[in-house]
Amino acid sequence: MSSAVISTSAALSRPFLFDDEPEVGSFSTDSRKPAESVIAQVRHSKIKNQHSTIPLVTPASQLAARPTPEMASSGIPELDALTGGLPRGCVTEICGPASSGRTTVLLAALAAATRRGEYCAVIDASDSLDPQSVADAGVDLDRLLWVRCGDEAPKKSQVKRNDQSGCPMSRAPSAREVGKPSQKLFDFNRKSEKETISRQSEHRLEQVLRATDLLLESGGFGLIILDLGDVPPQAARRIPLTTWFRFRRAIEHKPTLLLAIEQRPIAGSCSSLLLQLGVLSTSRENLAHGPEGLSSAHVQLLTGLEINVELIRSRLDRKPSTSVMFETKTAWTG
Amino acid sequence: MPFACIYVSNFSIAAALRAEPELQARPVAIFEGKPPLEKVIAVDENAKRLGISPGITKAQAELCSELALRPRSALHESSAHSALLDCAQSFSPVVEDSACDTVLLNLAGMESLLGSVPKISRAIADRAVALGLIANIATASNPDTALLAARGMSVAPASSRLSRGQLAPAPDNEEKHPVTVIPAGKEAEELAPLPITVLFHNRLDGDEKKSADSLLETLDRWGIRNLRALAALPQIALTERLGQDGLHLQQLARGAVSRALVPVEAPLMFEEAIELEHPIVLLEPLAFLMNRLLEQLCARLGSRALATQELRLTLGLSNLTGVEDEFENLGLPSENDGNMWGQPPSAVRRSEAPRHSRQSTQFTRKLSLPLPMLDVKVFLKLLQLDLNAHPPGAPIMKIHLAAEPARPRSTQGGLFLPPAPEPEKLELTLARIAGIVGEQKVGAVELLDTHHPEGFRMRRFVAEVARKIPQKKTHDAVEAQSAVTALRRLRPPARVNVTLENGQPVRLVCPKKKEIQGEVLWKAGPWRFSGDWWEREAWSRDEWDLALRNGEEISFYRLVHDLLGGGWFVEGTYD
């Protein structure tokens, strides 16, 4: 399977700065000295440095402490208790499979940010945000910018296929449309369909990265969310690490909070906080808080989920706390 | 009561130079008439030195290769006149539109606001330069004296001009836009050296022109060459020979005519246009011209302390078929790859009056802004992005830009308010993102009053700094409300094959998404919804909430049975 690297024009034109890397030019580079003496000096400094006798290389204990970032509430008290909140000016990753509560955390963070009067942006890679859920979560819709990535201008054939395949809200397919050979063609060209899906995901990721670059450059947003929750991990890993470094640099020392929702961690060391979500219960009765002992579907009700949050990595000075659990409620339970 | 006069000499040339500032270094002549009888009607100083004078034919003028010959443009002159009125009305509410090149304004009461009269005069001159016009400014105690002084400055030689009047101390730009301040009581003395022709400066038509010519001829025969001589004539004898007209002229020459201004209420129309000799095909030269028009528009809006919330760009397109053949011969591409030669214009409407016997069309774009703005760079970039997304589809012969004036927004940010995106930056960002993902795919969400599952629409995202922050509820109540189980939608919904048992789903298989398949662990439903039965697109469906085991993971889905279409779909994931 051929792999592709997704990059933007901005990625190529900007210089990259890695604040974690040691400074290369800290040695004496006097051009008048012969090269041998410089090499000898370097060797000497290395040897001495093992015993920390000379101040040529600053010991880590004497490095200036990086200021602790301001923390913002995630909107879920249990999560705040675990992490101390979400760090501003940093990248936060929230990972988990489907139904693990990622979107719930996303909406809770959005609601908390809009309650603080901040403007927020969601860059939705798979156009999966449900506006009704957003409103139910208490998000101020006027303060939310929604960028729906996907096919820019669906062609007529695609629209027709969508109507056939899909939307239950559309009219019922007529007898003519049912008899069309589009389904056969679909099965016959399954390989090309895979390639098309792969190309679409690349196209969407490119849209996501470019839109994120523009929004970070624009500034003024309190919370920017990259929703890559439905992007396959194989595709999401094609985002180069330099892009994440760029994002981190763009929001550094700013009050913006960058939150990435994904299935598996992809930002590497660029993320300051990494949370793994999952459904806590696996037994049938505990899946939902329905009345026990009643098996008929019409007397069951999905009232909420129990979400387990595990703190995988945090760069902040917090006591390690492994995991925490919180419950969600569906909108119709009140 | 001081009055000021703003006079633009050689108005046709000034209008042309305002439209094309790069012509200032070249000799310029303006011609008018029907071909082949076009005649030069106005020339600038550089052209005069080359021997070009008004009245010669266009063919004669074309012999001078250095000369820039331009047709007289009513559009340019109209824009320049509007700019002149804007300049005057930015200083005084009482403005008289005396002629296309002359504006009078009442400065009574302005001294306390804007400073002394010489200072105001220099400010007027500077404002006129900012609007692209070099104007003569004169102030006097009555409007006619100010008018004669302003007009006389361009007629009188420089030496006489320097010797008379109280020239404002502005040595750097004095020659470019001279300013004259005539103190009260010294009108006759200051007007005396002006030539007699300044009294007949207005281009009159018909009988008035004949009578003016005869008067001028009579005075010339009497040896009256300047206003001093006219003012010295005996009043009764002059009246006996020339009547009331002669007496009025003498009063003007003495600076003794006092009258009230006829104020004009100029409509707030901000339009600029440019006509091109050769069609524009590429976006870059178009942006260059639009930038010039936008600068003029913004300068005019700024002089009136206004901003704009709507820009209308109208492009006059040349004949499609003829130019297409021309470009095919040139070997230029016909696709939209960098030039504006894209798809046939959708918003093109055919013009009523064809220009130069060509079949011209118009292409209109409207740029609506969420907030009043006044930034040339932002406007230009937004127009460029808009034209990139909607190419006009044909070469451009005329550019017309109009701005709808609006009160500038008041940006009073609070010290303790959270930061908000800058409106100008945000608008540019949104336009760029719209170019990436599509116009309807970026914005804020607005829920519709319906039970339709996709009952929302996208609208423009506006970030206002002064927007009221919603009332805070108690902390616990708010946090409890936030943890709402969210639905993550699949757009479009995924069709699934469902195995039913007693009318209830027990197994799902989705051909497109392999992760959506397996035994149903738990289910709730059906919940029946329907709506829009009175419309053509009625909908009716049963919803199920169910849990599926996919390997070791359990996922919750919303399953929908379309009762009208008969299909089963997974609409989304509870996440």
At a glance:
Chain A has 334 residues and is α/β, with parallel strands linked by helices. Helices cover 35% and strands 16% of the residues of chain A. Chain A folds into two domains: 34-64; 71-163 and 201-291 and 298-333, 3-Layer(aba) Sandwich (Rossmann fold), CATH 3.40.50.
Your description of this structure?
The complex is a heterodimer of chains A (334) and B (575). Chain A is of the alpha/beta class. Chain A folds into 2 domains: 31 residues; 220 residues, Rossmann fold (3-Layer(aba) Sandwich), CATH 3.40.50. Helix content of chain A is 35%, strand content 16%. Chain A contains 12 helices and 10 strands. In chain A, the strands form 2 sheets. Chain A has an 8-stranded mixed sheet with strand order 5-4-6-7-3-8-9-10, with helices on both faces. In chain A, strand 4, helix 5 and strand 5 form a beta-alpha-beta unit. The N terminus of chain A is likely disordered. Chain B is of the alpha+beta class. Chain B has 4 domains: 212 residues, Alpha-Beta Plaits (2-Layer Sandwich), CATH 3.30.70.270; 127 residues, Dna Ligase, domain 1 (2-Layer Sandwich), CATH 3.30.1490.100; 57 residues, no CATH class; 88 residues, no CATH class. In chain B, strand 19 and strand 20 form a beta hairpin. The termini of chain B are far apart. At the A-B interface, helix 4, helix 5, strand 5 and helix 9 of A face helix 16, strand 15, helix 17, strand 17 and strand 20 of B. Strand 5 of chain A pairs antiparallel with strand 15 of chain B, so a sheet runs across the interface.
Low-confidence stretches of chain B: 155-175, 322-358
Q: Give the fraction of residues assigned to helices of chain A.
A: 25-40%
Percent of residues in beta strands of chain A:
15-25%
Structural class of chain B: alpha+beta
Write down the domain tally of chain A: 2
Task: Please report the total strand number of chain A as a whole number.
Answer: 10
Main sheet makeup of chain B:
7 strands, antiparallel
CATH topology of the largest domain in chain A: Rossmann fold
The neighbouring-strand order within the major sheet of chain A is 5-4-6-7-3-8-9-10
| Whole-number mean pLDDT of chain B | 82
Rg result of chain B: 35 Å
